Amino acid sequence: MFSMEENDLFRRLQSVRSRVVSCGYTVDTQPPSASPHSDPYTIPGYPPLTTNIPVTSSGAGTSQTFAGYPKPEVSVSSPVILPTHTTGLSCVVPLPSVSQCFFSIKGKRGTVLPPAPYMPHTSSCQLPIIWEQIRAWGGVDPPAELHVKCYYTVLSSTGVIHPSDHSSSVSLFVLGELQKPTLSISHHQTDMRFLIVCEIPVQSWNATGCQLYTGLRTELILTAKLSKVSGYFFCYFSVEENELFTRLQSLRSRVVSCGYTVNTQPPSASPHSDPYTIPGYPPLTTNIPVTSSGAGTSQTFAGLPKPEVSVSSPVILPTHTTTLSCAVPLPSVSQCFFSIKGKTETVSPPAPYMPHTSSCQLPITWEQIRARGDVEPPAELHVKCYYTELIGTGVSHPSDHSSSVSLFVLGECEKKSGL
Asked: Residues with Cβ < 8 Å from 110, sequence gap 6 or more?
């Protein structure tokens, strides 16, 4: 329930030149998630809208127009946004006596967004915004570039709302679902190298780089920067034949694939290309247990201790990302894998080990979790992890699996009508 003084509400409506109000609710995710707004309600008895006039001061028979307020500075938390992502708009204000801020988004059309409250501890106004809102307010279909500005308002002693100048604009790129790249390979027998090209779909022109993977478990072996020629985007890899064969042998695989990343915060990974089978690859051999021998005896390598798995948010909604974390009790780890079990059980692509946190981490979206668990929301999934350690002989040795933690997958928040 809300309780507001009549004059307070009328002043707020006057500042945005509106007669309607609406409400919404939040859900306890990390970060909190906002529902759709209720149906709008028109306030009865609201006085006619008036036109704001310049704030003036007078004295000794003269009148002077109030000086313009200094420009704010606008920024976005992520310059690229995908369908499953949220970005944050920020308006940094150079004055302490600010009422609120407004953001404008310009694409095929321009739209001024609902007011964002001023936060004194950050000297700014901030507004979280999802992909669907950005598309609708900018009137664009992805891929598209939008321009974002902001301004703020100050409530004068006479009760008049006075706006600042607009900030300079920043760009915000709206992309659709990431499409898989196309992989092509040529084998140069003269210098015993493979030349590999990863071509990126044109609708993903905000890619920043590519990754080359080997094996069905997709172990990362190389990264490359993005290149552009005649409107085409691609990455180029040159790999020695022996190096590629050694990596494939360790994974008992004959295939490679590639992917690319897009400049979101955190970076987003594309689906992998279709796998490519390396021609002329030598026969696979069977790995044997790693042993140490001495004085005529042989000892099998001991099992590795269990890791500990956790999730950054135990509940995930369609517009959210959660992070899977695998805390590892050993310093000599190669990488980690996460298994997600719903109706089916799926093992994720490998997550790199980060020595400074003694863990592996994997950001994962709602759509990815749904697909890997093969569930419809609402549903409970069970997440485990394990890690691999590269032994001196070049064989990757897996640890025991961790205990499992629960991850709850929810659908869209429902709208509540009425006030």
From this structure: 104
- Band of pLDDT at residue 63, cut at 50, 70 and 90: very low
Q: Residue 96 pLDDT > 70, yes or no?
A: yes
Q: CA 330 to CA 327: how far, in whole Å? A: 9
pLDDT at 319: 82
406 and 381 in contact (C-beta within 8 Å)?
A: yes
> Cβ distance 154 to 55 under 8 Å?
no
The reply to whether omega before 120 is within 30° of 0 (cis) is no
Cβ-based neighbours of 238, under 8 Å, separated by 6 or more: 193, 194, 195, 196
Burial class (CB in 10 A: 0-12, 13-18, 19+), 190: exposed
DSSP reduced 3-state for 17: coil
Q: Which among 15, 22, 6, 17 is positioned nearest to 415, based on CA atoms?
A: 22
Contacting residues for 356 by C-beta, under 8 A, at least 6 apart: none
In total, the chain counts a number of residues equal to 419
- 232: confidence class by pLDDT, cuts 50, 70, 90: confident
DSSP state, 204? Answer: G
Rounded Cα gap, residues 117 and 115, in angstroms: 7
Q: Which range (8-12, 285-289, 327-331, 360-364) has the least confidence?
A: 285-289
Given this model, what pLDDT does residue 19 score? 62
Q: How far is CA 58 from CA 34, 64, 157, 303, in A?
A: 46, 6, 14, 85
Can you spell out the DSSP letters for 162-176? EEPPPPPPEEEEE--
Higher-pLDDT residue of 342, 47: 342
Of 178, 185, 177, nearest in space to 214 by CA: 185
User: Measured between alpha carbons, how far is 245 from 242 in angstroms, rounded to an integer?
Assistant: 5
Does the pLDDT of residue 62 top 50, yes or no? no
Burial of 119 (0-12, 13-18, 19+ CB in 10 A): middle
166 vs 102: CA distance, rounded Å: 10
